Amino acid sequence: MKKCMAGLLLVMWSALLCVQPPSVLAQTEATAEEAKLAADEKEGCVRNLKIIYEAIQNYRADHKDIPNWLSDLVPQYINDANFLTCPACKRTGEIESGALADPKIPCSYLYEFCPLQLGKIDAPSHPAKTRREWKQRQMGLVGSIVPIVRCRHHAVVLNLAFDGRIYESPPSWEVLLTNLLDVAELQSARIFAADSNANAGEKSAPPAPTYPPLAASNATPAPPPLAAPKATPPNPQPGDASAPQPAISDTGSQLTTLKSQLPSTSSSFAGNMDTLDDKRKLAVGDRITFRVIEEQEDPKALTVTDSGELDIPDLGLVTAVGKTCKELAFQIKSNLLQTTYYRATVIIGIDLLNKTMSGRRVYLAGEIRRPGPQEIPAGQAWTVSKAILSAGGFTEYANKKEVRLVRSASGSAPGKTITLSIADIWEKGRTELDLPVEPEDLIYVPGRAVNF
Questions:
Q1: Does domain 361-445 match CATH 3.10.560.10?
Q2: Which pTM value belongs to this model?
Q3: CATH number for the domain formed by residue range(s) 270-352
Q4: Could you report the per-residue pLDDT of 261-314, keeping only the tens digit for each?
């Protein structure tokens, strides 16, 4: 009897394991429906952005300027204000709020070129400067990729660039440019601070550009890989078959990643070597993008070799370790001008920091509990004291006041020996004495005299 009961329980238990609970099935179906809804809403948003762009171009043709707000397009250029509401917001009821909200009609899109003053927080040196002036200055640095309209109501932000392209980005679109320039250069406070510096005799910020000319056909000038949107009727109706209707399978080709396009589209930035990264030093294993603008070719991906060099086209091996992108670019430019180039604008950006840290080591010797090579952790400011702590600290006979740091032959000061007191750093809080280490540096801890 017990065996029968046990067998019956086993069969019932196996059956339960084979049957998915209804709640799990319902949850899976709900997730699929949510994903389809999100895709449909994004596709509808793309259609709205194309209609808005076409309306802005028609407004420019008539007024020789862009509108102050999107509501200025209604009703002459967009006869139905529903096109100013993202499909996701029609479902949720959300709209843009706060200072950037359209003053005339409810609108879910953020219009970046409005005449709103920046104020003392965003532009402390010039609070009367407007958001439009700021965006014009950004265009002077990176070209027409600057968004004119943005939708922040999806999992990613949809950006309508000034030149008509539509691309996805994080909330801050500027981070897509980190391989090409210090994004802090695009901040309003930094841009307008340059005006004050100019008054003091320093170099001025680039002037605000004029807007790109309208295409003769008044069609959206969206370069490949984005398909140029079809011309929109003067007064499109929601759901009108004549309005642009990209298929779901085509949406992916219209939403493009900015990084792959910037080198060929941002011509105003491309010739400015002064904006290259001058802070982060290259190390073994770092991958960079290299381009000479005058060659009119796509950027080349290069990797810093174990010997600390880059194989530069037309030059050969060039030492890169310990130099910033800006330093290296100007050095390469000088070398190219001495060989085959009459003019050379060299653009270098860090594409991928070495994550394996192969070859990025320091060496510890002397009165250290665990002497030997030590990997430098990725993304950390590694100092002498941190390296010693990571190696288990000092032995009891260590002279903590005369620790020697010997710079590597390929570092910032080849062969230089620096003596520092770790005792002062740890016991007196003199953290300013704690020097950063570089790949292949040697840290030597001598022994102290022992008194019997």
A1: yes
A2: 0.47
A3: 3.30.1950.10
A4: 443 333 333 446 877 888 888 887 788 888 888 777 777 888 888 788 899 888
